[in-house]
Design brief:
The protein has 11 helices and 10 strands. The protein is of the alpha+beta class. The chain folds into 2 domains: about 90 residues; about 240 residues, BirA Bifunctional Protein, domain 2 (2-Layer Sandwich), CATH 3.30.930.10. A 7-stranded mixed beta sheet has the order 1-5-6-10-9-8-7, with helices on both faces. Helix 5 packs across helix 10. It starts with a helix and ends with a helix.
């Protein structure tokens, strides 16, 4: 019996050292030390042996079992380390790479980019940027801008009023900031006012909330020729060199005379026709694209701030305004203004 125990120990030791993987090693453990293993059977049968053999056989079998358990433990540790090293070599992660999937990087909204471009152009011409409240008083929004009582713009179908305060409203243009600025700064003044405005209107080219940039220049000796030159410089900077500006007679309550101003079409170069002879779809064959409104500041408006140094007999100036969304639509070929506010990343991601 002692010889068989030694044979089991020797054969098992060789098999354990030769085990190629943890799965094979686990199979050996069950075969060598499991309930049906030969060594386990010997230990269970010690009581059936003659008394003089029980001590020697029991001690030899227990030593063999302990040696095999130690060999299995050491071999398992070696195999685990080798298999881990192999997995690390195959599944190596470069920790310097970004996570997967990489988080998309945000960017400035097209309306903000267009507004900043206009601001940069006008600051380069000597204007300063001024901001004001979006919730405004009727006086600044209408009265001081020469809108008489009963003017259509004052009606509920055009303007959002605060229900509990009938003389408080969401501003319909950024011009009220001009009056506020004139009250605190004597002439000369050169300023632009970008910001949100609100009107009861919604379709492909109008939104209840949109953005405007208005400009104001007042001093001594300022004329329509200065307005023409300013518009020309601004439109060339926005739409590209070679663009021309033209003015057409119009009417606004706060300017006299009033004009609408256009830019020569940058798609057909002002010809009204494309290269294949078809009518230009951008300017509708006219060669000009409407941009905004302008004019010389009405002396009545200056009368509201005459105490701040704006004597209509001594100073005069011009004002102009345009929609930021319209500029962005023209420059980037966006057919529907509402796409700017849908927050559809498929649309917004095109303008980085």
């Amino acid at each position: 019996m002692l010889e068989r125990i030694e044979e089991i120990r020797s054969e098992a030791g060789t098999a354990i050292e030769a085990a190629p993987g943890t799965a094979e090693l686990e199979g050996l453990r069950v075969r060598l030390l499991g309930r049906k293993a030969e060594l386990t059977t010997i230990l269970r049968g010690i009581a059936d042996l003659p008394q003089r053999e029980r001590g020697k056989v029991g001690a030899a079998a227990n030593r063999a079992r302990q040696e095999l358990e130690a060999l299995l433990e050491r071999r398992a540790a070696d195999l685990d380390a080798a298999e881990l090293e192999a997995r690390l070599a195959v599944d190596r992660v470069d920790v310097t790479l970004p996570g997967a999937p990489a988080r998309p990087v945000g960017h400035i909204h097209l309306i903000t980019r267009t507004t900043r471009q206009i601001e940069d152009v006008m600051v380069g011409l000597g204007y300063r940027v001024v901001e004001g409240p979006e919730i405004e008083h009727d006086y600044y929004n209408f009265t001081a801008l020469n809108h008489p009582p009963g003017h259509p713009a004052r009606m509920l179908q055009d303007t959002f009023y605060v229900q509990s305060h009938p003389d408080v409203l969401l501003r319909t243009h950024t011009s009220p900031v001009q009056i506020r600025a004139l009250e605190v700064q004597p002439p000369p003044i050169f300023m632009i006012v970008p910001g949100k405005v609100y009107r009861r209107d919604s379709d492909a080219t109008h939104s209840p909330m949109f953005h405007q940039v208005e400009g104001l220049a007042i001093g001594e000796g300022i004329t329509m020729a200065d307005l023409q030159g300013t518009l020309s410089e601004m439109l060339q900077a926005i739409f590209g060199e070679g663009r021309e500006a033209r003015m057409r007679p119009h009417f606004f309550p706060f300017t006299e005379p009033s004009v609408e101003f256009d830019v020569s079409c940058f798609q057909c170069e002002g010809s009204g026709a494309l290269g294949d002879g078809s009518r230009c779809n951008l300017c509708k064959g006219i060669g000009w694209i409407e941009v905004g409104g302008a004019g010389m500041v009405d002396p009545t408006v200056l009368g509201f701030v005459e105490s701040s140094g704006y004597d209509p007999e001594r100073v005069q100036g011009f004002a102009f305004g345009m929609g930021v969304e319209r500029i962005a639509m023209l420059r980037h070929g966006v057919p529907d203004l509402r796409r700017f506010f849908d927050n559809d990343v498929r649309v917004l991601g095109q303008f980085r």
